UniProtKB/TrEMBL annotation:
Protein name in UniProt: Glycogen synthase
GO CC annotation terms, alphabetical: cytosol
Gene Ontology biological process terms from the UniProt entry: glycogen biosynthetic process
Pathway: Glycan biosynthesis; glycogen biosynthesis
Organism phylogeny: Bacteria, Pseudomonadati, Pseudomonadota, Alphaproteobacteria, Hyphomicrobiales
Family statement drawn from the similarity comment of this UniProt entry: Belongs to the glycosyltransferase 1 family. Bacterial/plant glycogen synthase subfamily.
EC number(s) on file: 2.4.1.21
InterPro entries: Glyco_trans_1, GS/SS, Starch_synth_cat_dom
Keyword Ubl conjugation carried by entry: no
Span of domain Glycosyl transferase family: 286-450
Reactions accelerated catalytically: [(1->4)-alpha-D-glucosyl](n) + ADP-alpha-D-glucose = [(1->4)-alpha-D-glucosyl](n+1) + ADP + H(+)
Chain's gene name: glgA
Residue ranges of domain Starch synthase catalytic in the record: 2-235
Amino acid sequence: MQVLSVASEVYPLVKTGGLADVAGALPAALKAHGVAMRTLLPAYPGVAEQLKKRKAVASFPDLFGGKATLLAGQAAGLDLLVLDAPHLYDRKGGAYGDPQGNDWDDNWRRFAALGRAAAEIASGAVKDYLPDLVHAHDWQAAMAPAYIRFTGKRPVPTVMTVHNLAFQGQFPVSIFGGLGLPGAALSLDGVEYYGGVGFLKAGLQLADAITTVSPTYALEIRTPEFGMGLDGLVRVRDHVLHGIVNGIDTEVWNPESDPHLAATYSARSLGARAKNRRAVEERFGLARDEEPIFCVISRLTWQKGMDVLASVVDDLVGMGARLAVLGSGDNSLEGSLLAAAARHPGRIGVVIGYNEPLSHLMQGGCDAILVPSRFEPCGLTQLYALRYGCIPVVARTGGLADTVIDANEAALSAGVATGVQFAPVDGDALRLAVRRTLALHRDRKAWANMQKQGMKSDVSWTHSAARYADLYRSLIAAG
């Protein structure tokens, strides 16, 4: 099968979050299931330069206000099609916003172009390449099913994957005239959403199948609490909705060979983690002692429960915990955590920003990771933690509930516990979860068994890639 994946970020070329990790790892995992996946992404600054054997394979004289070229090449084992449109993507800042963190005003145009290019490729724009199916990821790629449906020259089945329903790509109706879609597309059965244009809504409405990144999240988004205004549409289309949990790249995330660790190790040599722990202490200015180090590797936002964490950090230190935080996000939350570090020197360390090598070291050296998300479609951080013997302490929601086995009495007795779950997401529940974790840490035998059980967990793409391949085949066969 030839599958075109459409994504706004792909690790290791460009990454702002877990979407990039998934888009970067899934193609390799699908090879074993007879799927050849090419990935279409924008040519942000520096992306095209990473392509090997780069060549132009198509051109668009006027793609939303300027000339664009489609470049084919390989990078990091990925087969890529890069949309080189300087008027849309060649600018300082991030993938989605300016250097000050504000969304680009023309994001609707930038990501409509990505969807339009996908439809052109599906219609034969690239010589000798006709994908059997198009797989779009999140709102930035969600217009691909719309363009294929309304402007495509050949019917191609489409899959729409929701990584986070909270990010929807909603724009005023005034942009519709610039999308190049027929008037019929501005309807309830098309791209119209509450009087405006909804990119993600369009993908959910028009794709042949919808997937989201864990079974529990697939259930949650049917409800008003988690549906973010789209729960009605999700319920209408739940017959084509599939919850397929994410995996991780177990070569990139491998404690036995990770170059970012101070010391590599396995489940048989957990003592070597001590060198990584010392490196974490040094990097975060933490006092050297034997009290457990809890870490946070996250966007510092309300969704991730970081306001709840900020409200209880003094209590966590009082219980004996140390805390290392890596992330960025809301200015107020960054300030609250930095202030906590100033109040508790040697007990709390905070690094503001994104640092991929440091995140590996933290997974390999910290004792436990806190993930107090209010909602979490899948979450990859806890999967990395399981792989590295860093005990996940997670909210009981979405993919966190699906991937971490709570250390209750039954699970501990059976020897299958891999972490700690808690609910609801509030200060009292988080304090209790940390207290439980501290008690478990004092029982060295139980703690080591939890680490080993987590490291035995299958967090790879093996099972999930097979489910995607089966879904692709069924859609192509239904053709």
